[in-house]
Each structure stands twice: as structure tokens, then as C-alpha cells.
Design brief:
Blueprint: H1 3-50
Length: 55
Amino acid sequence: MSNGTLVIEAITTLAVLIHAYWAWTIAIIATLTVLLLALVGVLNALYDHYRPRKD
């Protein structure tokens, strides 16, 4: 195995790790965003349910 092959293998491994890291980061941000939107929806529904009626 030559030095060139080792360099290419190291770069490929690094690229795979970076790709996996970004995929996890995007997945976590998307999950938190969905949870935040769900929380806002629940709070809005509770607010609408409990505020005094203006008939």
C-alpha cells in the first residue's frame, strides 16, 4: 500500500465521518424544530380554549 493510497483512504474516511456528522446534526435540528412547532400548536390551542369568550 503506497502513501498515495493511504492519503486517499484517510480523506475518504474523513469525508464519510463529516457527512455522517452533518446528517445527524440536520436530523437533530429537524426533530427539535418539529417538537417546537408542536409545542407552539399545543400552547395556542390551550390559549384559545381558556381565554374568555367575546360574544
